[in-house]
Design goal:
This protein is an alpha+beta fold and about 160 residues long. It has four helices and eight strands, in the order αββββαββαβαβ.
Length: about 160
């Protein structure tokens, strides 16, 4: 069965649905060091596009304006899944999209609500991803590790792959 672009995108969407939070990695404005911070994933679209709410005064906004190349790092310990997404980020002030994506929990960060003058969206368009997925139960994982140790054969960590978008 051929791994078509649509199947690649579907794989990414399914993996991202396993997590709620990621580390957004940008390049610092003056030092050019990598800078990361946790971000709640507001939504992933069927095409792989991801949306995040942010504050205009946040350093990440300046960093994205300077260099739109970003990475997202995600993991689900309960599912034993790890994902690294590279892509481009764009700032969006689309009030209609904000209304569509807004949920009451956002008031924790934006006490004035959706009309807070600080609120904006970050739209991430992924270009590629790497994933490590071993969704087996913890008992199955432990059994396979012991089996590898006893037999002297390398432990099979599950599915690993790259997704080109």
């Amino acid at each position: 069965m051929k791994n078509t672009p649509a199947k690649q995108v579907n794989k990414l969407v399914e993996l991202v649905k396993e997590v709620n939070t990621c580390m957004l990695i940008t390049i610092e404005k003056y030092t050019e060091h990598l800078s990361g911070r946790p971000m709640g994933i507001t939504k992933i679209e069927g095409d792989g596009t991801m949306w995040f709410f942010a504050k205009m005064s946040s350093p990440k906004v300046d960093e994205i304006e300077q260099n739109m190349n970003i990475s997202l790092v995600m993991m689900s310990e309960s599912k034993n899944m790890y994902l690294m997404v590279n892509g481009t980020a764009r700032l969006s002030y689309d009030y209609g999209k904000m209304k569509e994506l807004w949920n009451p929990m956002m008031k924790v960060w934006f006490p004035l609500g959706i009309d807070d003058p600080e609120v904006l969206l970050i739209k991430v368009t992924p270009t590629e991803a790497s994933y490590w997925d071993n969704s087996s139960s913890k008992i199955n994982i432990a059994f396979n590790m012991v089996k590898a140790f006893v037999t002297g054969k390398e432990y099979d960590e599950g599915e690993h792959g790259r997704i080109a978008l």
